[in-house]
Structures are given as structure tokens and as C-alpha cells.
Design brief:
By secondary structure, the chain is an alpha/beta fold. It has helices at about 5-20, 25-30, 40-45, 55-65, 75, 85-90, 95-105, 110-115, 130-135, 140-155, 180-190, 205-210, 220-230, 250-255, 285-295, 320-330, 355-360, 430-435, 465-470, 475-494; strands at about 170-175, 195-200, 235, 260, 270, 280-285, 315, 335-340, 365-370, 370-375, 385-395, 400-405, 410-415, 420, 425, 460.
Length: about 500
């Protein structure tokens, strides 16, 4: 539809709504509003955001596709239980402030969640409109509407700061400044506690800054949320590694903290254990993305002092969002050819459908049902190729996906000069090694009471990937809110 046709349709629908004649059949006829994006060829050579966001007309049309179901099944799919039906109704009415107020009852990071959360397997999966058409792509685009409201507010120059209660005299440490830490710190500070965030890196934001590329999540958006925390009076200490700079015990005994929240994520990369992983030119996805995102290795023009390979041919191993981020980053760093090597089929890839689609649009070559057997180096220990095996799918495994089975004798070679391993992360063992009495499960994740996020150590709470393993931004936020509520109760009694 042209802009003029969209505006005319919106006016017709608004007139029907005023007279009470807007029916579900009318809503079903509204075409889903596609997200405007940069051209695939153009965006390969820049780090600007790929999706450019809805216009007001598009947002209101998309909002009017919502049936306003009485049961609101979409809410059941939201980890933080946002009143989705109500914020969408406010957008349809053009009341964007009200829409944002509804979202912020439960989510403090709508601009972030609207961009990176997997709505297609959360709130949108149960959308009645998508179920009606038996097509999940026809579901109301809840995430895009959430992003629109947050961006509209930010572009309007809004600078509201949540109110803070009377000082309680209680001191709380929040370890990690990722999404869970930000939410926890905000909720604790709103209750009047003295809150300090301890961040291991030199910049705040956690995985939102070091892990997610600029073209998916602009860093200015994350910084705005950090700025809000400091305006509320939250203190932030960077370059502070709990377990090395100081232990948890020292934070309590020497610094006088009354409670601690651990939200350090799961940042220790997994490797495959194959020959050649120590060669020059082999990166973990964590290292590669951190160099590119946090240390701006992509910004050659300003002389960013960050060493990173200027690659010609890159192989990325994995099929998740991190693998897609790594492959698409390699393109933007000047690679001529990028291969994504995954041992199952595209259907089994854990990455968001949207990210897979964007990667393919940008020219990344998918090698499915294949996996490296070894990485080959030259006489100077530089990567020159990977030797792969072909696979076929067998029976379902514990993940619910068909198990990949290697085909004997199917070895073949792909010439590359860089190999990025993106097969997942595990928890860093540092806190485990330095905190007696803190219970962990067999995967190295902290064991908590899921109703309070309390750990086995008194006064210590935890949430996010260090508890659940690698998950989503909104899951970390949800656990942070649960922990903050329990910590507020605990501190009130104390």
C-alpha cells in the first residue's frame, strides 16, 4: 500500500470505530504492516540499524488488527505479563503516552525488548489473529508496536525519571549491568535503597552492548536507560570483577552491603574440542562480537584501536542468534564471503526467523547439515580452511530436535581465513570458585528459589543467564523483577 492508501484506510477504520461499527471482520482485512528496512546491499557496508521502524500510520493500522480479545491470550506468552491488549488499544487511539505507561508497568526496556526479544515464540505465538489465519506471520506485530511507542517517546525528547521513595538506609549491590541488573537496580532504587551496580567491563549494558550488534540494537538506546538509573541515584562502578576485585563476602563484611543480586550472565564460550581451535584466526563469537561492538573494531575511519582480523573468507559455526550476529558483523567488517555452517537444517535453527531472513538477504551462504571436523592451518599457524563432515538427521534428542548423525566418508574442505565458533556459552566459574556455600547445578548455573530468586546464601539473590543458562533479554528482566520484589520484602523486614 502507498502512504496515501494507508492513511485513507486508517481514516475509514477510525470512522467505523467512532460509530461502533468496526467489526472483527474489518480487522481481519487490514493487511499486516511490514517493517521498513534498509536495502540489503546498502546495509552490508554500514552498521546502522537494519529495521527503521513503523510510521504513525503503520503503527495505528497494525494496532487496529488486534481483536482486543477478552481473554488476551498474548499476555500468557509474555515473561513479564505486559497488558498487551491495553497498550495496543492506546496506540490505535493515537495515545502513545498511555501505551508507554502501560508497558512500563511491567517492562523498563521497551525499546530494547521491541527490537531483540523473540516475540514470535512468546506473545505473538498465541495471538488469535495468527491462529485464525493458521499463519504465525499474520499475528499482530506486538514487538514492533512496543518498539514504535518507545521510539516515539524517545524522539519526542522525553526525559522522565521514576520517582524514588524515602531513603531506607539499606545498601544493595547489583553485580552485572545487563538487562536483569538494570531492572533489579531500578526497582530496588525506587524503593529507596542505596544501590550500587558493579560491572566487569569498562562500559555498562552487559550483553546488550558487547553481544548484540549496533545494526540490531543501537547502543544509544541502552545508554539512555543507564543514564536514567544514574539520575535516580544508582551508583555504577565499572572494571570491577566480583570474585577477583572483591569477593561476595568482602562486599558484605568490608563494604557493608545488606543484600546482593547476581546478574553476571553466562559469558564463557563453548568450543567444539576439535583439532585446530587454537590457530590464529579462530575466535569465539563472544570475543569477536565484543571486539566489534564494545570496542568498535568496525569503525576503521576513526582509528579504533582494536585488533581484529580483516578477513576475506569467514566460516561461522552455529545456528543461533549469536551465529547470525557474528556472520552479519563479519560482512560489515569487509569479508568478501561468509559461510554459516550448521549441523542441522534451517528448520531446526534456534535463531529468530527474522535474523535468518536478514542474513540470507545480505548474501551469507548457508551450509546446512554440515559441521567442522577440524580446522586447518598453514606453517605459520594461521587458519587456511576447515574440513567438514556432512550430516543427516536421525531420531529426536533431548532438545526435541532430530539428532544430527555424521555421514562417514563425506569429508570436504572449505577455504577460509577466519573461523568463528558460535555454539553457545556457559557460566563463568569465578563466583563459584570464590563463594563458599553458593549452590550450583551440574551446568554451573546458580540454584535459586524460583518464587523469590533467593540463593542458598542468605541475603544473596540471582537471576538471568547465570541462573537459567543462555536465554532472552525479557526472561532476564522478568527474573530481575521477581528478585527485586523479594529483596524489597527481605530488606523491609531486616
Amino acid at each position: 500500500m502507498t502512504d496515501k492508501e494507508s492513511q485513507e484506510l486508517l481514516q475509514q477504520l477510525l470512522e467505523k470505530q467512532k460509530t461502533g461499527k468496526l467489526t472483527p471482520a474489518d480487522r481481519y482485512k487490514i493487511p499486516p504492516q511490514g517493517m521498513p528496512e534498509q536495502d540489503p546491499i546498502t546495509r552490508r557496508s554500514n552498521v546502522n540499524e537494519v529495521a527503521t521502524g513503523y510510521t504513525e500510520t503503520q503503527a495505528r493500522l497494525e494496532a487496529m488488527r488486534c481483536l482486543q480479545c477478552k481473554t488476551a491470550p498474548c499476555i500468557n506468552g509474555c515473561p513479564v505479563q505486559i497488558r498487551i491488549r491495553d497498550f495496543i488499544a492506546a496506540i490505535a487511539d493515537g495515545n502513545y503516552k498511555k501505551a508507554l505507561d502501560v508497558i512500563k508497568e511491567n517492562s523498563l526496556l521497551p525499546a530494547v525488548c521491541g527490537r531483540v526479544c523473540p516475540q514470535e515464540v512468546q506473545c505473538q505465538q498465541t495471538c488469535t489473529v495468527g491462529l485464525k489465519f493458521k499463519d504465525p506471520t499474520k499475528a499482530v506485530s506486538i514487538g514492533r508496536l512496543e518498539r514504535f511507542v518507545a521510539d516515539f517517546d524517545r524522539n519526542a525528547g522525553s526525559d522522565s525519571v521514576p520517582s524514588v521513595a524515602t531513603e531506607t538506609g539499606m545498601k544493595v549491590a547489583v553485580i552485572g549491568s545487563g538487562p536483569g541488573g538494570i531492572v533489579t537496580a531500578a526497582d530496588l532504587r525506587r524503593a529507596g535503597h542505596d544501590v550500587t551496580i558493579f560491572e566487569a567491563f569498562h562500559k555498562t549494558g552487559g550483553v546488550m552492548v558487547y553481544g548484540i550488534p549496533e545494526f540490531r540494537l543501537p547502543k544509544a538506546i541502552v545508554q539512555k536507560e543507564i543514564d536514567t538509573l544514574t539520575k535516580m541515584g544508582v551508583k555504577i562502578t565499572c572494571n570491577f570483577i566480583v570474585g577477583r576485585t572483591k569477593t561476595l563476602e568482602q562486599l558484605f563484611k568490608e563494604d557493608g552491603f545488606d543484600a546482593v543480586y547476581i546478574g553476571v550472565g553466562a559469558g564463557l564460550p563453548r568450543f567444539m574440542g576439535i583439532e585446530g581451535e587454537s590457530l590464529i584466526g579462530v575466535y569465539s563469537a563472544n570475543e569477536y562480537l565484543t571486539r566489534a561492538n564494545l570496542m568498535k573494531a568496525y569503525d576503521f575511519s576513526s582509528g579504533a584501536d582494536t585488533p581484529i582480523a580483516i578477513s576475506k573468507k569467514v566460516a561461522v559455526i552455529g545456528g543461533g542468534n549469536v551465529a547470525m550476529d557474528s556472520a552479519r558483523t563479519a560482512l560489515r567488517l569487509g569479508a568478501e564471503k561468509v559461510y554459516l555452517v550448521y549441523r542441522r537444517t534451517e528448520k531446526e535453527m534456534p535463531a529468530r526467523i527474522e535474523e535468518v531472513h536478514h542474513a540470507q538477504e545480505e548474501g551469507i551462504e548457508f551450509h546446512i547439515l554440515q559441521s567442522p571436523k577440524r580446522i586447518i592451518g598453514d606453517q605459520n599457524s594461521h587458519v587456511i580452511a576447515i574440513e567438514c563432515l556432512k550430516y543427516q538427521l536421525g531420531k529426536l534428542d533431548e532438545s526435541g530436535r532430530r539428532r544430527p548423525i555424521p555421514i562417514e566418508g563425506s569429508e570436504f574442505r572449505i577455504d577460509v581465513d577466519t573461523c568463528i565458533i558460535a555454539i553457545g556459552n556457559i557460566a563463568n566459574p569465578l563466583i563459584r570458585q570464590t563463594t563458599p556455600g553458593l549452590k550450583f547445578n551440574k551446568w554451573g548455573n546458580i540454584v535459586v528459589d524460583e518464587e523469590t530468586m533467593a540463593t542458598s546464601v542468605p541475603s544473596v539473590f540471582a537471576g538471568g543467564d547465570i541462573v537459567s543458562g543462555a536465554a532472552t533479554v525479557i526472561m532476564a528482566m522478568g527474573q530481575g523483577r521477581i528478585a527485586a520484589a523479594a529483596m524489597n520484602d527481605f530488606l523491609a523486614k531486616k
